[in-house]
Specification:
Elements: H1 3-16, H2 20-30, E1 37-40, E2 57-62, H3 65-76, E3 81-86, E4 99-105, H4 114-124, E5 125-136, H5 142-158, H6 168-173, E6 178-186, H7 192-195, E7 196-203
Parallel strand pairs: 1-2, 1-4, 2-3, 4-5
Antiparallel strand pairs: 5-7, 6-7
Helix pairs in contact: 1-3
Bound molecules: S-adenosylmethionine.
Length: about 210
């Protein structure tokens, strides 16, 4: 992992991913989260201030040490105890049936082995546990989709493997989750190629 990914990208993301519309979405996404919580792709910790009051600790994984370094200040000033792990979300060492809630935000676009990671998320959730997701992905609009395909290669290079063309709802549904809710909309302030949003909850059958 080079200087750009470890040092420049975390600062860039920390700024870009904190838009007011996204902060509102994070707030509503996390309102129903219950302990025990795992966040995959913790990044610079932008979800942290939005966890409900009753959440006292979370476990997180991220593959980029630069992201975790950038998150430190936020972790130190949070009332939530954060147990960070430098790990690939596609290889979770946690035992089966450990968590009540798993959270991903703007991460399923970037994980190289996304199907494996979703399988791991399913494995570590308890029966009845829920995946809370806020992700961007492929648009149903053919014109936008064409541009997403055109821009996907450059996006993957400049944004550390981020894909513009993943169908997040279909990827989640393919892993034996029951979709509880999935809102789809263009995130205000984002270009349409980058802002088609999938926000929702998927449950592991009880
Ligand atoms: C766009 S950032 C989003 C960060 C944060 N979730 C947010 O909402 O601001 C994507 C994050 O996913 C992480 N990531 C990418 N591939 C990963 C993997 N295989 N396992 C764990 N984390 C990964 C990146 O390091 C980065 O922190």
């Amino acid at each position: 992992m080079g200087f750009y990914t470890k040092v420049i990208l975390p600062s860039f993301y920390d700024y870009l991913m904190a838009s007011p519309a996204r902060e509102k979405a994070r707030q509503s996404l996390l309102a129903g989260v219950q302990e025990a919580v795992l966040e995959v792709g913790f990044g610079t910790g932008l979800n942290l201030p939005h966890y409900p009051e009753q959440i006292r600790q979370i476990t997180t994984v991220d593959i980029n040490p630069g992201m975790t370094a950038k998150a430190l200040k936020r972790i130190q000033s949070s009332p939530i105890a954060v147990n960070t792990h430098l790990l690939d979300g596609a290889r979770l060492p946690m035992a089966d049936l450990t968590f009540d809630s798993v959270v991903t935000a703007y991460t399923l676009c970037s994980i190289a082995q996304v199907e494996t990671a979703l399988g791991e998320i399913h494995r570590v959730l308890k029966p009845g546990g829920r995946l809370f997701f806020l992700e961007h992905g492929v648009s149903p609009d053919p014109g936008i989709r064409r541009w997403q395909e055109r821009l996907n290669g450059i996006q993957r290079v400049i944004a550390a493997g981020c894909h513009l063309n993943r169908n997040i709802k279909a990827l989640i549904a393919a892993q034996s989750f029951e979709l509880v809710s999935c809102e789809e909309f263009y995130m205000a302030g984002d270009p349409r190629t980058h802002g088609y949003t999938y926000q929702g909850i998927a449950a592991k059958p009880a």
